[in-house]
Design brief:
mainly alpha; Heme Oxygenase, Chain A; 12 helices; about 75% helix; about 0% strand; globular; binds fe (ii) ion
């Protein structure tokens, strides 16, 4: 089992090179100007309530079917782990130290603190504990095609740093708040004896703040370069669509 993922040596050298080719002292060291949320960022954030994800038929189905709910948990193990890694990748693309530090609050929120070598509050670990408490054996966890396709679509939306902010901030952090609320209701009816609160509440309570942090950073980047607005909105839209398509396909598997 490899404990490290793929690495792009070219990207590492480009990151170094850009310090010399595009050197601007202020861009790197000085605080960025505080700006109100950009209208395009606000438009993108409306995509989540408009999607009605919390009313997706899959959640009602999972509320009646413990196997469907367990399947959701097994697939979310892939999504949660990859998502935390993609946040780290995006952090490295933010040049300004103050913006990067604010973004890293999101990264830190997903990973939590470490005690005795264990990231006890990290979202992937909390999900692992939830899976364990449901009796899901690690050997039985396999990625399904819809999950693989969803994560590939997500990566495709991250075609630029601003696209990454739209895809991760809107299509994931913001989307998770209503989505996990619906998952919570499914747990209450299909698996009431399972302690689901640690993982689901950690996301529900933190992700509103996480998506707001990302929305503000995106607004600053767009205020600095208005040509980024379209990329942000397109990535937010395609990631919301990808997540809805994912649930359509999960529902198809159980109907
Ligand atoms: Fe989050």
């Amino acid at each position: 089992m490899a404990l490290t993922g793929p690495w792009n040596a070219e990207l590492a050298s480009q990151l170094v090179e850009s310090n010399f080719v595009q050197w601007k002292y202020g861009a790197r060291f000085l605080p960025t100007e505080t700006v109100p949320l950009h209208p395009v960022v606000e438009e993108a954030s409306r995509l989540v309530p408009e999607s009605g994800v919390e009313r997706h038929p899959f959640f009602a189905l999972a509320g009646r079917s413990r196997p469907a709910l367990e399947f959701w948990v097994t697939q979310e193990l892939f999504v949660t782990g990859v998502f935390a890694q993609l946040l780290g990748l995006t952090s490295s693309a933010l040049v300004n130290v103050h913006q990067r530090a604010r973004f890293n609050l999101v990264l830190q929120g997903e990973h939590g603190g470490v005690k005795d070598g264990i990231a006890r509050a990290s979202h992937p670990w909390l999900l692992h504990k939830l899976a364990h408490s449901m009796g899901i054996a690690p050997d039985s966890v396999e990625p399904a095609q819809p999950t693989y396709d969803f994560l590939r679509d997500l990566a495709f939306s991250m075609s630029s740093p601003i696209g990454a902010l739209g895809a991760l901030g809107v299509g994931n952090e913001q989307m998770l708040v209503p989505e996990y609320g619906a998952v919570k209701s499914a747990f209450e009816s299909a698996a009431p004896e399972v302690e689901h609160g640690d993982f689901l509440n950690a996301n529900i309570y933190e992700d509103t703040e996480h998506s707001a942090l990302i929305a503000h950073i995106a607004s600053e980047l767009i205020a600095h370069d208005p040509s980024l607005a379209d990329h942000y909105l397109a990535a937010a839209r395609s990631s919301v669509t990808a997540r809805m398509r994912y649930y359509d396909r999960l529902a198809d598997l159980y109907t």
